[in-house]
């Protein structure tokens, strides 16, 4: 008989309540006591920043970790994988392109499972960026945030965050990507200023120079803070070098990945 999941999971932002998110961010503002336990760690692809910050988080929390390459790249049932592995591990951190497969595994496991990125969601990245905005600019409910370009896994997580926390998000993109999503206003045209503009790498198959962000676009939005999701490609989603733009939020902002991911691990393992 399949096991029922009995721990929190973070596969997408919607798995968290507003209180969960605020609790994680509160943890991230203060020293986090070392924990103990074993992490099952499986990481598909490059993800240099995510990989670096999670491994450092494991070390700073005094967690042992074992790398399990291609954990979910098997024909074995998720129920069986979880059933055999759960006794050895206290938490799983997995980056895998197959969102449905990771969700299936998380639902089968009795341990917390953290999504370090799938094709449909990037919750840790977005929780970090939102934390940075709250810390340096102001509350999300009082800060106009705009997404620029076609829908991606990062932007889907921003859509979910707006719904969970109840703030308005503007998404400027081609009409083919417009959806009916609570708290998200889609538009093809710039119609006012914004405080923070976020870009992400274009998905495969999209190539439209009209959506390559340039200085004229930024001027039209009253020169917002610019938060390009790395790795960014100059000449594609961004026409200019963001380092030359005064409002670039900077490399240092991604240091918050370590802080927030430590808080996520600590919070989920304590639940």
Q: Could you walk me through the main structural features you see in this protein, from its secondary elements to its overall organization?
A:
- By secondary structure, this protein is α/β, with parallel strands linked by helices.
- It folds into 2 domains: 13-122 and 256-270, Rossmann fold, CATH 3.40.50; 124-253, Aspartate/ornithine carbamoyltransferase (Rossmann fold, 3-Layer(aba) Sandwich), CATH 3.40.50.1370.
- Helices cover 33% and strands 15% of the residues.
- It contains 8 helices and 9 strands.
- Strand 3 (91-95), helix 4 (99-108) and strand 4 (113-117) form a beta-alpha-beta unit.
- Helix 2 (48-60) crosses helix 8 and helix 5 crosses helix 6 (153-165).
- It starts with 17 loop residues before the first helix and ends with a helix.
- Mean pLDDT is 96; it is low at 1-5.
């Amino acid at each position: 008989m399949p096991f029922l999941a009995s721990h929190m999971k973070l596969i997408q932002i919607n798995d968290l309540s507003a209180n969960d998110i605020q609790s994680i961010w509160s943890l991230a503002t203060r020293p986090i006591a070392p924990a103990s336990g074993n992490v099952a760690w499986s990481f598909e692809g490059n993800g240099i920043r995510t990989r670096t910050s999670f491994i450092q988080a494991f070390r700073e929390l005094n967690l042992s970790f074992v790398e399990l390459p291609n954990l979910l790249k098997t024909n074995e049932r998720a129920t069986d994988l979880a059933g055999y592995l759960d006794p050895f591990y206290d938490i799983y951190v997995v980056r895998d392109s197959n969102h449905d497969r990771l969700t299936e595994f998380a639902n089968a496991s009795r341990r917390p499972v953290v999504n370090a990125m799938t094709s449909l969601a990037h919750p840790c990245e977005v929780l970090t960026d939102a934390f940075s905005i709250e810390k340096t600019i102001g509350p999300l409910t009082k800060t106009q945030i705009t997404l620029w370009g076609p829908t991606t896994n990062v932007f889907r997580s921003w859509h979910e965050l707006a719904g969970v926390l109840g703030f308005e998000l503007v998404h400027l993109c081609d009409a083919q990507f417009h959806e009916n999503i609570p708290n998200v206003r889609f538009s093809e045209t710039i119609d006012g200023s914004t405080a923070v503009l976020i870009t992400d790498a274009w998905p495969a198959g999209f190539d439209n120079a009209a959506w390559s962000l340039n200085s004229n676009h930024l001027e039209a939005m009253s020169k917002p803070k610019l938060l390009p999701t790395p790795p960014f490609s100059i000449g594609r989603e961004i026409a200019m070098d963001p380092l030359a733009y005064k409002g670039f939020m900077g490399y240092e902002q991604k240091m918050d990945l370590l802080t927030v991911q430590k808080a996520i691990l600590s919070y989920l393992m304590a639940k």
